[in-house]
Give the backbone structure.
Amino acid sequence: MRSAFIGALVQIARQDPRVVLLTGDLGFTVIEPFRDEFPDRFYNAGVAEQNMVGTATGLAEAGFIPFVYSIVTFASLRAYEFVRNGPIAHRLRVRIIGVGGGFDYGTAGFTHYGLEDLGIMRMQPGITVLAPADHRQAVAALNSTYELDGPVYYRIGKDESRLVEGLEGRFELGRADLVGEGEDVLLITIGSMACEVVEAAGRLSAHGVRCSVLVVSSFNPFPVDDLRQALSRFSIAITIEAHYAAGGLGSAVAEVIADHGIACRLVRRGVNETPLGVTGSSGYMSKFHGLASEGLADTVLRTIEELSITNG
Amino acid sequence: MNLPGPDDPERDRFVLSKGHAALALYAALHQIGWLTAERLDTYCGDGSLLGVHPDRDLRGIDFTTGSLGHGLALGAGAALAARMQSSGRRVFVLISDAECNEGSLWESAMFAAHHRLNNLTAILDLNGQQALGYTGQVMDLAPMDQRWVSFGWDVDEVDGHDVAAIVKTVESGEAERSRPHLVIANTVFGYGVSFMQNKLEWHYLPMSDQQYEQALAEVRKAR
C-alpha cells in the first residue's frame, strides 16, 4: 500500500506544486520516486517527528500541502501534541502518513505496533482519519482527499499486493462499503484487516453462515448513515480491527448503536492486551491475537452460538 | 519586521513560542494599530479572544502557542516555506530559557541549522527563572551560548531591556548571514519593579491595588 500511495502522490505532485513530502528518516525503497523527481520538495527531517509535524505546520500556513511520513506509532503518538496544537488548532492542510497499522511490523515488536492511532486521531475534532483497506483504495482515498481543508491522517498498511475482494478500490469520504450479501451476521472492519475478514466470511459460508462485510475506511468522518442502515438489518454485528479494542472501530460503532437506539447486539474483537512477551511475523502475531481469517471464522461461529444460547 | 498588514501573505511571521507572554504581544499589536484598545481591555475576560496564550483566530497572531517547545518548529517551517517560495519574508521566534528543557526545541534547532535557514531569528529571553525555581537549579542550561553555537547557529548576546540594542543585534550582519540567528536577550524577571525582581512567586501572584500603583510608578520612573 505504501508504494502505491507514494506513486499516487508523485502523480499529484506533478500537477500541484504545493505538495511537499517530509519523512522522519523512513521509507527505504518507498519514498525514492518522490525524492528523485522532486528533490526541492522533499525533506528528510531526520529522526525527529515532533519537529517534522511542527515544520509541516509552518509550511502549510504559507500555503503548502505537506505530507509527513513515518511508522504509525511515531507519526501518531510521538508527534501527537504537535498534531493537536499544529494542524488541528490551526486548521491547516498537513497530511500525516502512518505506515503499518496493527501488527504490520511483525518481528519489529511492541514499539512498532500501531494499535491506538485511529482512536487518538479520531478523538480530535477537525481531522480526517482514513484507513484504506488495500492499495487500490489507498490511491482512491488519497486522490479524493489530498486537497481537503484541515489535517488528514492516513493509516497505510505495508502489504502491497492483497486486494479486498468485491471492493474494487472504491472510496468515498464518510461512507462505508458493503461487501457480500449475507443476512446472518454483519462483520464490520477497518483498514487492511478487511482482507482477512472477507476471507473469514468465505470460510464461514462453508459452515452455512452467511455474512456481509462492512468495510469502514473513513474513520472520521465516520459513516454513521451507512452504519445505521446496515446495523438495523442485523441482530448480530461483530467489529474486527487490528487496533486496541478500546477507542477503535468497535467503540465508534457502539456509539452509533447507542446514539440511535439500534437493536443490534454488538461484539467487539480487537487487541485486548499489551502485546508483549511474544513476537513473530505479522501473520503470526495477527493469528496469536485471533485476527487471522481462520481464527476469526471460529470466533464468529462461537459468538453466534453463545448469543443464540443466551437469546434462547 | 515587515508588517504591511495582518492579512498580507508577504508579512514577516512572528511566533511567540513562550506563549505565556501573550499580554505583551497584544500590547504590541495595539501599538501598531492592529488591535483596538477596547478589545485589548477584554484580556482574559469571559468570551474574549485574548487569553493568557495567543490564539491564531485573533488577527495579527500568526500561530497559536502555549505548549513550550513547539514554536521553533513552526518558525522553521515558516522560514523554509519562505525560502521555497523565493520570498524575502523573515521569521522571528521568541523562546524562553526554560523552554530549552524541551527536547523538541533541539530537534528544531538542528533542523534550522542543517537547512541553513538564514531568514530565521530566534530571540531567547534568558531570565534564569522557570515555574518552580531558577533554571540553574532546575535544569542547568549554562553555557547557553555554546549550546546553540555547537548546534550550528550564529549567536549574539544583548541586554534584553535595551530595545534599541536588540533591534541593532537582530539586524547586524543580516545580509551576509548563512545560518539561523539566535539572539540571547539577558533579562531580569520582573525588571523595573523592585518587589518583583527575580522573585519566583510573581510568575503567579496577582497584584493588590497598592502594589499595582507602586509597580506603575516604578516603571514610569525607569522610562
User: Anything to note?
Assistant: Chain A has a mean pLDDT of 95. The longest strand of chain A covers residues 236-244. The radius of gyration of chain A is 19 Å.
